[in-house]
Write a structure and sequence with these properties.
Elements: H1 10-18, H2 20-23, H3 28-60, H4 67-100, H5 107-173, H6 188-210
């Protein structure tokens, strides 16, 4: 009894029927064709995920925080974990078939199963490597964003320090005291304004030289 479409299994049947001599030796060759078909599909999935990761990496090595990109990276890492977990049983099944089921797997078929095992093992390694690549890319992206935020905070702090000086000076002259420096002088206001501008310029120059602005 079959449920759903069987279009995907036609390739397995065609491959098995091409090698009639191996097929006549028992169900082992048909089992090999099924396992080989499964692992080949895993390899195709690995290639597809690798292309998606390459596209995501270009957008991650920026100083801009993109929650959508990070969410896609998280989903990709989960898919890679599922792929690795799906390929792992194949690497365990193949050696058990070779060792403990000689009645099903003849000697001339064991090399085929070892080849399937190697392919499944490569799928696991590739999936784990891509997971580590994505994790590293996420860390680099967060580090770049953190550095950019630090630069912005430095600039805000620098401009805040510059603006606090005229605020202090002008607030002192707004306290309505009669005995203030240069309060009754004809050049008092221009002098206070000039001193304020000079102090602000000197502080701006020092902060600019220090890389804060």
């Amino acid at each position: 009894m079959r449920h759903g479409s069987v279009e995907g299994y036609k390739a397995i049947r065609a491959k098995a029927e091409k090698n009639h001599a191996m097929l006549c030796q028992g169900p082992g060759y048909a089992l090999y064709c099924i396992l080989d078909f499964i692992v080949d599909n895993y390899s195709k999935i690995t290639e597809s995920l690798s292309e998606r990761i390459a596209d995501l990496e270009d957008g991650m090595f920026t100083t801009r925080f993109d929650s959508v990109t990070l969410e896609n990276v998280y989903h990709l890492r989960r898919q890679l974990l599922s792929l690795r977990n799906a390929a792992m049983p194949v690497t365990e099944i193949c050696p058990q078939l070779v060792r403990f089921h000689e009645d099903i797997i003849p000697k001339n078929l064991r090399a085929y199963l070892r080849d399937v095992q190697d392919h499944a093992h490569h799928v696991m390694i590739d999936a784990e490597d891509m997971r580590e690549t994505l994790a590293s890319a996420m860390q680099v992206n967060l580090a770049l964003v953190s550095v950019q935020q630090s630069e912005v905070n430095k600039k805000l702090a620098g401009w805040g320090a510059i603006l606090i000086l005229p605020t202090i000076i002008f607030s002192m002259y707004g306290m309505n005291f009669s005995d203030m420096p240069e309060l009754h002088s004809h050049f008092g206001y221009p002098a206070a304004l000039a001193v304020t501008l000079v102090i602000c310029f000197v502080m701006w120059w020092r902060l600019k030289k220090a890389g804060w602005l």
